[in-house]
Structures are given as structure tokens and as C-alpha cells.
Write a structure and sequence with these properties.
alpha/beta; 8 helices; about 55% helix; globular
């Protein structure tokens, strides 16, 4: 069956079985941003609901996966899976979730270092022996349960990314704009390295200029666009990001001057092809 015709698939899976799946964090995801309270809460929940009980099953939450035939892209659950990977790494588990993931954002790197230290301190506070650590590891692999939701279409994945990220640390509207534009780049002729470069540049900018960017959108760009249309609007929310999505070259949108932009894009592409042919002396 073609991927586009497949319906979303749901199943329950314990943590230990997830080692058989290779996950990938897509470009549109935010960096790893879990704070101290999230990490400690997860450790305490696993300890109280699995470790201290016999043969306990504890449902931690859901993981939403976009299966694009090449990768199992994590749509929702990245923060939790990354934290569990850190716990496994501390407990010297050889099979670590996301072990092949290359975290390039400085935000992710800093939070991984900080949270790993939190995990180490938490276990030290419990005075676990080596055998108790192994027992803890074995129990959470068997007792920690997820609901795995797999989707096969990119649009479905992006819609779920939008809706699911209203929980936890909320997305800013410009986070969704970043995700939208990176997704469009994946449809275009951009390489993986190019998309990664722009994603890192975006997050590096936010690391230094989070509040100014938020202010530019909320207090200036959004209001100017609305007032220019004689619409009364003051607060910029995630429901308004369509104002800045621009034109998708792969969908039939009805925007003012859209045909001009499409013709311009076609002219640029033709010029690039002509240049390439001239370089090979075959034009």
C-alpha cells in the first residue's frame, strides 16, 4: 500500500521494545529544552509508579511518529525520549534511544549536559547500589509504556506537531513559522545540510534575541499587516501564523499577486538551468 493511502496506526509499546526502532528528530522540531522540574518529575514518576511496585505498568504518554519510508521522525515525544536516553546512558545501557542523533543546537547541548548532571545527582540522592541501578533499568524497560501513533503523510505529521506542542513548554507563534518554512524547504531542492544550517541559524539567533523577535512579530509586523487591511487586531497568537506563511509553490493558494511570484520563481529556475547547460557547453 502506498504511504499516502495508509491510515494512522496506533499501538501500545513498552520502552524496552522501542530499542528496535531507529528514531530521527526532524528539522522542524525545537531544540531539547526540558527544564529541571520536567526531568525530576519524570524520574520521580518512574521511581514511584514502576520501581517501587511489582510488575507495574505505567503509561508515560504518547509518541507520534511520521514514517516517511526512510525515517521514523519524532513528531511528539522528543523531549521525553531524549531525557530517557540520558537516563539510559547514565545507567550504562548499551542500547540508547536516539544514540545516533547529532544535536547541533547550542541550546540542546547545554540542556543535555545540565540535565545529565541532574540525573546523576538524583541517583546519588537515592544511594542506589550497582544492582539497584540495574533493577531500576530493567523495571522501566518492562513497565514504562507508551502509546505509539504512526502517521504516513507529512501534512498529518505537521498538523499533529502543531496541536501536540500546545502542551508542556508552549510553542511561540514564530516556532510554528520556523517549522512551516523548514517543511517547505524539504519539498524544495534544498539538501539536508542546507536545511540543518538554517535550522541551527534560527535557534542560535533565538538564543540571543528571543524577546526582540517576539516583540517584532507581536507589536509591529502583525499589527501593521492587520491595520493595513483595516482589521482590528492586537494580540498575535498561533492561530494567526497564516499571516506570515507566504506562498507554497506546491499548493494552489489564492493570494494577491501570487501568479507574479510563481512566474518569477519559474524564471529564476529556468535561468539557473540555462547557466548549468552553458557551463557544460550543451545549451
Amino acid at each position: 500500500m502506498e504511504q499516502a493511502n495508509k491510515s494512522p496506526f496506533l499501538k501500545e509499546e513498552v520502552l524496552g521494545n522501542l530499542f528496535q526502532t531507529t528514531f530521527k528528530i526532524p528539522h522542524y522540531q525545537r531544540p531539547y529544552k526540558w527544564r529541571k522540574e520536567h526531568v525530576i518529575q519524570l524520574l520521580d514518576d518512574l521511581y514511584e509508579n514502576i520501581y517501587l511496585k511489582k510488575n507495574a505498568i505505567y503509561r508515560v504518554g504518547s509518541i507520534i511518529i511520521h514514517d516517511d519510508k526512510t525515517h521514523n521522525n519524532i513528531v511528539d515525544g522528543q523531549q521525553r525520549l531524549t531525557t530517557l536516553s540520558l537516563i539510559f546512558h547514565y545507567l550504562k545501557e548499551q542500547n540508547v534511544l536516539l544514540q545516533n542523533e547529532n544535536y547541533k543546537h547550542e541550546i540542546s547541548k547545554n540542556n543535555i549536559k545540565y540535565n545529565y548532571q541532574l540525573i546523576e545527582n538524583w541517583f546519588l540522592s537515592k544511594s542506589f547500589s550497582a544492582s539497584e541501578k540495574q533493577d531500576y533499568l530493567d523495571k522501566i524497560k518492562k513497565g514504562c509504556q507508551f502509546v505509539i501513533i504512526t502517521v504516513y503523510q507529512q501534512d498529518e505529521a505537521f498538523q499533529l506537531f502543531d496541536s501536540q506542542n500546545s502542551r508542556g513548554k508552549p510553542l511561540e507563534p514564530y516556532d510554528l513559522l520556523k517549522a512551516f518554512h523548514l517543511r517547505e524547504m524539504e519539498n524544495d531542492a534544498h539538501t539536508e545540510a542546507e536545511i540543518e544550517k538554517y535550522a541551527v541559524q534560527w535557534e542560535d539567533y533565538l538564543l540571543k534575541n528571543d524577546k526582540p523577535l517576539k516583540s517584532i512579530f507581536e507589536n509591529h509586523l502583525f499589527r501593521i499587516r492587520k491595520w493595513a487591511k483595516r482589521e482590528k487586531k492586537y494580540l498575535f497568537s498561533k492561530n494567526d501564523i497564516s499571516e506570515f506563511k507566504g506562498i507554497s509553490l506546491y499548493k494552489g493558494n489564492k493570494y494577491t499577486y501570487e501568479i507574479i511570484y510563481r512566474l518569477l520563481d519559474g524564471a529564476i529556475q529556468n535561468a539557473q538551468k540555462d547557466k548549468m547547460l552553458r557551463n557544460f557547453n550543451i545549451s
